[in-house]
Amino acid sequence: MTYELYYWDGIQGRGEFVRLSLEEAGADYVDVTRGPQGMRAMMKIMESRTAPHIPFAPPFLRDGDLIISHVANILMYLAPKLGLAPADEGLRAVTHGLQLTITDLVAEVHDTHHPIATSQYFEDQRQEAKARSAEFIDNRMPKFLGYFERVLQQNPEGPEHIVGKSLTYVDLSLFQVVEGLHYAFPRGMHGFATKYPALAALHSSVRKRPRIADYVKSERRLAFSEDGIFRHYPELDKDAA
Length: 241
Prior knowledge:
Distance between the termini: 53 Å
Helix content: 40-55%
Strand order of the largest sheet: 2-1-3-4
Order of helices and strands: EHEHEEHHHHHHH
Radius of gyration: 18 Å
CATH architecture of one domain: Up-down Bundle
């Protein structure tokens, strides 16, 4: 059966974390809003007054009659089916916890350019965004990246993967995080590979995986932009040395 992924058209956004797992697994899926049904199909589900279990916001995934929302929740559901989750039930819970931590990080990245309100344009909160970004780059980003570096280094199965000895969806999500941070804060990420060698090695190894490499080069992989989660505003990046 074909999975149906629903997300805002024209941007990577949070939907990209789900796409990476689907692409790595070679799963049969359709990005619904990019097809002929367009955004109407997604809004019809979200605005339904009769359907059960309607999602609050995208991304969400339809698998038959089941609709599942929230990135970490979608990945927890999909990963065992795609071969991207540990076999051990306890380690699956650990993996889900790591993805939830990525959810927290992504929310903080979003708030660097929208610190006051999502309903206001970046230009309406420029000064607040500059202060929030400085705090994120100096304190919050190193805290998150340092945490994931330690988890990799302390994995009993070795630092090649975040959990266990095989690729999981969290490895793919960390690849996306590193890609996005390099785009949004190129000066702030200066020295990344030296500070976080295990995380840098993971990012490199995921990029070289055949299906991910093909996806990254394909038209299906949209470019980062100033409409997504990871946005590059030079004034929000770390000041040049």
